[in-house]
Amino acid sequence: MNVEGSNVLIEANAAMNGGDGPQSYSQNSFFQKTGLEAVKEILQKEIRDKFDVVKPSPSESLTVKIADFGCSTGPNTFHAVQIILEAIQHNLQSETLDSQGPEFQVFFNDLVTNDFNTLFASLPPKRQYYAAAVPGSFYDVVLPKSSLHFAYSAFSLNWLSKLPLEIMDENSPAWNEGMILYSSKRKDVLRAYAVQFADDFESFLCARKQELVSGGLVSVLVSGVPIGTSFSETSTGKLYEIFGSCFVDIANKGLIHKDKVDSFNLPAYYPSPTEIKAVVEKNGDFSIEKMEILPNPAFRTKVPDLKKRATSFRAVYEGILSKHFGSEFVDKLFKLFCKKLDNETELALFLNSEKKNLALLFVLLKLKPSPH
């Protein structure tokens, strides 16, 4: 199958599961929540040390503008906003601004297909900010120029804007036949994913450069691989391997055509700190104020809840899976996935103590002053 002219899935444009039901993202974002809690103190300290705004004249009021890029449906986005807001308040109070303090405006950004109704229905009733939805890809400019003081993005940059074309072209060395994600065993596939991530991260930085005021901050939190570790060596890599085997098993049973599986790949990537730093330095518009590599607290439990991991996979990927395969396939897929996770052999592999876990990569960037 040549990708040119075929109806393969190229754009990664499906949002997380909406609503607040048992398979929704809002009920299955525990791992994202633990990541935010892990960096809370670092984030607050960095904001208190680094956040600065141009003080208005006595006759003008100060409005601080914050954006969460890739907010999904909550409740994590509200928790993150509150952490950021309180840190900025502490910073500005120490600058002895007027006693009334600044006003805050928060922009919640995600794809146009995001469930903004559920998000705004669950807004904290006693919030200290004005809220607005900003639909659109965070890889593009979505806010007015020089209007934003603080940009925040948690785990969103793990989601690629699109899939590399070459991994879906059977004439390419990077054709990813029989797999749904990259592996260190397929160097060309891994390279294609890495290039796409670098391009996307560059686009993200270019967009934020347009939107931020001079000296504005960008806080990025992503899941990534520790230095010297490949994704395939991690427990999460093993989990994706088990997940991918379910697609192949269903195709081998004749329940879906093999070409349908070969033309599907997940638009996810887990970068290393080295890759993050390289893109920022190549971009040149931001200084790295802080980069921290933290262990992921979601994996500190002795025996991880694998059923919960399966449900979290569904909350994240169901939209993109349904679009490519149909909803009936999704039900079969996750039934098989849960069954495999119950299998003692697979479970033993997952819990192998030699398996390494993903790290949390926290990065705080500051927009450099314009040379003009």
Short description:
With 372 residues, the chain is of the alpha/beta class. Helix content is 40%, strand content 16%.
Give structural notes.
The chain has helices at residues 30-50, 76-94, 116-121, 187-211, 235-252, 258-262, 273-283, 306-325, 327-342, 344-350; strands at residues 63-69, 103-110, 130-135, 148-154, 212-224, 286-295, 359-367. The chain has a seven-stranded mixed beta sheet with strand order 3-2-1-4-5-7-6, sandwiched between helices. Helix 3 links the parallel strand 2 (103-110) and strand 3 (130-135). 40% of the residues lie in helices and 16% in strands. Residues 1-11 have low confidence and may be disordered. The radius of gyration is 21 Å and the shape is globular. It has 372 residues and is α/β, with parallel strands linked by helices. It is built from ten helices and seven strands. It has a domain at 30-227 and 266-302 and 355-367: Rossmann fold (3-Layer(aba) Sandwich), CATH 3.40.50. Helix 1 (30-50) packs parallel to helix 2 (76-94), helix 5 crosses helix 9 (327-342) and helix 8 runs antiparallel to helix 9 (327-342). Keywords: Magnesium, Metal-binding, Methyltransferase, Transferase. It holds the Pfam family Methyltransf_7. One of its GO terms (biological process) is methylation.
Keywords:
372 residues; Rossmann fold; 7-stranded mixed sheet; globular; metal-binding; methyltransferase
Topology:
Layout: H1 30-50, E1 63-69, H2 76-94, E2 103-110, H3 116-121, E3 130-135, E4 148-154, H4 187-211, E5 212-224, H5 235-252, H6 258-262, H7 273-283, E6 286-295, H8 306-325, H9 327-342, H10 344-350, E7 359-367
Parallel strand pairs: 1-2, 1-4, 2-3, 4-5
Antiparallel strand pairs: 5-7, 6-7
Helix pairs in contact: 1-2, 4-7, 5-9, 8-9
